[in-house]
Amino acid sequence: MQGKFVDNLPKVYGLYTGGFVLFIILMAVLEQMGMSAANIGILFVAFTIVIYALIGWLSRTMEVEAYYVAGREVPAVYNGMATAADWMSGASFVALAGGIYFGGYPYLGFIVGWTGGYVLVNALMAPYLRKFGCYTVPDFIGTRYGGNLARFCAVVILVVASFTYVTAQINATGTIAARALQIPFEVGVWVGLLGILFCSMLGGMRAVTWTQVAQYIVLIIAYLVPVIWMSNKQGFGLIPHFSYGEAVQRIQELEPAVKLGLKAASNVPGLAILTNPHNAPGGGADSWKFITLAICMMAGTASLPHILMRYFTTPSVRQARKSVAYSLFFIFLLYFTAPALATLTKLQLLDPTLATSIIGKSIAEVGNLSWIQNWSSVGMLKIVDGNADGILQLNEFFMRADIVVLATPEIAGLPYVISGLVAAGGMAAAMSTADGLLLAIANALSHDLYYKIIDPKADTKLRLVVARVLLIGIGALAAFVASMKLTGILGAVAWAFCFACSGLFFPLVLGIWWKRANRAGAIAGMVCGFVAGAAYLWYIRTGGDVWWVIDHLRFGIVGMPVSLIAMVVVSLMTAEPDAETQAMVDEVRNPSGDTILKGH
Amino acid sequence: MAGSTSEKLQVHWAKTRNLTWLVLVIWAVFSLVIPGFAKELNSMTFIGFPLGFYFCAQGSLIVFVLLIFFQNWKQDAIDDEAGVGE
User: A452, A522, A103, A15: which is closest to A289 by C-alpha?
Assistant: First the structure.
């Protein structure tokens, strides 16, 4: 049955995509027939969640190999799509373009970091970990270095990094569910969690893989269609990605005219005015900030277990490499669209020659626009006539960064069906990442902590029951933490990357690339790097002075060198690994033959 | 192609290592060096974009995608040559 399913993938997902497009058309027709915007939003989000849950239920399994690594039969292209969905979170979908809109050049560090990291994944990690044949990332650390302590350290870092990340994702699902389904945020968080658990609980990695492919299709359609439609409607070109260069230059011309940088007369909590130039890198400290952010995001990409474990699901080492290439291509489609979206939306608001512009118009006129009214009514946007002249100035227009993507269709005057589509896409992005993260945490705890350390004699059935109980428990804990709204979405995501790269990057890389690395060194590398990074974060969050503009988004810059030095020094001070371990490293470097770990 | 399997594997690994170094150098240029000089590059334009902005928003990303496909193509050849391809 499963074999047949894998052979039929193009047909299955072709039908699925066709069905989704038909659904969009149906919604567009219903909108013309007078269905309310609110109902269209509800239908979009509810329909897609039901589909994902159905796929999750159809993929249920009681086999260990299927639960942990999807039976190692996922073809490269589909694994690429699943990884792209796993990777692109609510932050990428909802917050990234908004960040570029408000931040300009410094923010492009995320774009470069979150794509360049895949070069490291492909060159340093994925093929070798696939050859190893592990179920989880701590499984590699535990076997390569030997001993329960090394395995345990890896589990702790994995849990801290992934848990930080998953609360941000559940926060995002809650925000979108709350707006689309018109329920309170605290309830939305639990609704989102229920959908996430349905996708992962019954079928583990197998179910998550096939729902993530479905979620990628929804999210990429939902991101590209509005931007391309908007560009055609507003005359920015057929494919905006290659023609928005003039728009960047035009914004740079307009910035002095709209008095960019002028402070607001009063602040509105939670909202911001545009103060940063779109494209004005200053060299020096600006370059240093860009580079440090990019390094943290790239090394974090190559150390985050929920991404690395996706490459354990391919049939071979060569397919693992190939699927990294497809992953980055599918991710690239969204990431090279985000700056185009940010630029064109900004130009539409600023440029007085465009019909959509609002800056410089009378406040009474702008206040009548329906998108301004819709977003003002939910407190995401505010106009304050600071100088009381009745004309809207740039420093009188307050907005939340997160709404740039969601409001773009309305600003450009597209039908509401597009806004419903965007909400479904944001939901897909946040759910797919949360799925992968929860599964990474639960698998590490059930496989590495419970089965490998606590009870190595546990039978298959018990192991899978433990895995599912942990999944529910961690999901509930994450939803509880998310409902307390402790951190913003973006801050939490950057922290997760920094935790992961501080503790895991060098122990993983050197485990493959440096035969001399031994257990004591790896433990020192994990503990010192992680503690140094976390201590620095704590130090600056409690009011300490920031060193060399290394702020809380890039504390991995402190953790990583500490980890590297500790690992190399301690490895060299202690005995080299035994012959068996060295032979194992040689074997990892040979792409052919059996995996190193067999039959858990 | 005389030589034992272990010799072949040593050659295979040496070639793999060299390819990896090459990839990492190209990666560092496009992810770290070029974005760091965005200010200087912005004085030039490319298909209408200020060049520094172009690389950070699009150019480097395209290079990364092509770089991975290039590496895999070369690595497959190295594997096949050493008889460890699949």
Answer: A103
Q: Which of A72, A107, A119, A321 is the mutation pick for testing B, counting most B CBs within 10 A?
A: A119
**Does A324 contact B68 at a Cβ distance shorter than 8 Å?**
yes
ipTM of this complex prediction, to 2 decimal places? 0.92
Taking alpha carbons only, the member of A395, A408, A399 closest to residue A342 is: A408
Q: Are strands B45-46 and B49-50 parallel, antiparallel or unpaired?
A: antiparallel
Confidence at residue A485, expressed as pLDDT on a 0 to 100 scale: 65
pLDDT mean by block of 10 residues, chain A; 600 residues: 69 88 90 84 86 84 78 86 89 84 87 92 90 86 88 89 85 76 78 81 84 90 88 80 81 79 75 80 80 92 89 88 93 92 87 80 81 79 81 82 82 84 87 86 79 78 81 84 69 85 92 90 92 86 76 84 93 88 86 71
- In chain B, which residues have their Cβ closer than 8 Å to the Cβ of A335? 61
User: What structural domains and CATH numbers belong to chain A?
Assistant: 2-252+276-344+414-588 (1.20.1730.10)
Most B CBs within 10 A among A96, A122, A125, hence the mutation to make, goes to A122
> What integer pLDDT is reported at residue A483 of this predicted model?
73
- Whole-angstrom distance, CA of residue A387 vs CA of residue A248: 29
Q: Which pair of structure tokens corresponds to residue A467?
A: 């895995």
Ramachandran bin of A404, using left for φ above 0, alpha for ψ from -120 to 50, beta for the remaining angles: alpha
Integer Cα distance of A502 and A444 in angstroms: 19
- Are the Cβ atoms of B56 and A123 closer than 8 angstroms? no
Chain B contacts of A105, Cβ < 8 Å? 38, 52-53, 56
d(C-alpha A445, C-alpha A265), whole Å: 52
Question: Do the chains contact at B20 and A339, CB–CB below 8 Å?
Answer: no
- Residues A443 and B82: their CA atoms lie apart, in Å, by 36
pLDDT at position A508, please?
93
* Nearest beta carbon to residue A248 from set B12, B53, B76: B53
Residues of chain A contacting B42 with CB distance shorter than 8 Å: 279, 281
Integer Cα distance of A2 and A107 in angstroms? 43
Q: How far apart are CA A506 and CA A526, in angstroms?
A: 8
Nearest to A478 by CA among A432, A441, A423: A441
